[in-house]
Amino acid sequence: MIIHGARPSPFVRKVIVFAAEKGIAIEVQTAGFGRGAEGYMKGSPFGKIPALEDGDFLLCDSTAIITYMDALRPGQEMIPAEPKARARTIWYEEFGDTVVQPIGQKIFFNRVVARALKREPDLGAADVAETDEMPGIYDYLEDVLPQSGWLVEDRFTLADLAAACPIINVGYCSDGLTADCWPKTAAWLEQVKARPSVADAMALEAATVQAMIQK
Question: What are the residue boundaries of the GST N-terminal domain, all occurrences included (predicted)?
Fold first, then answer.
């Protein structure tokens, strides 16, 4: 099974970690920005990352890919079966993908990715996102996090993974999330990052991120 994409992408990291949690062996091949192997070009006709290549089965979009993976390996589902927990998990994935990521992208892209691509960054947009938009994200998480420290079912699920992935990227170039202001949220993020599957994924992307930061 091949995952096509760039490891530091929150969406690619989500799939990599999800596969590790499910015990699914994958190979990651670099792709994106119109470049990639044939499986990527065929499986992702609109240039989305990640893309999946599992034999002759081609698919793109992180949500579609993890849905496939979760069904492929039944057992301790990362997407809970209990109706309310399942619904909350899907909400938190939507929250991470469509609420947090667009804000976080303003910070990570303009402070890190733009320079690597030799594009003109909008550092003002990054600063506004950091000071005016991300605090609302942290406030929300601080309010909804249970005492267990996990968003759903008192265990690590897709909810935590999806919500944390874009915040991990923000943390590469922002120190806005402080334990003084958001103790539960800061502790939750550290707990997610300490998960072996997440820690391994971050270790494998570290060199790429550092190279982009230094450009």
Answer: 1-77
End-to-end CA distance of the chain: 33
Query: Using only C-alpha atoms, what is the Rg of the chain?
Result: 17
User: Do 152 and 172 lie in a common domain?
Assistant: yes
Longest dimension (CA), the chain: 50
Q: Is residue 132 part of a domain?
A: yes
Q: pTM for the full model? A: 0.95
pLDDT, one tens digit per residue, over 23-51 is: 999 999 999 988 999 999 999 999 999 99
Q: Do 166 and 10 form a contact (C-beta atoms < 8 A)?
A: yes
pLDDT at 132 over 90: yes
Cis peptide before 80 (omega within 30 of 0): no
Query: Residue for token digits 């800061």?
Result: 186
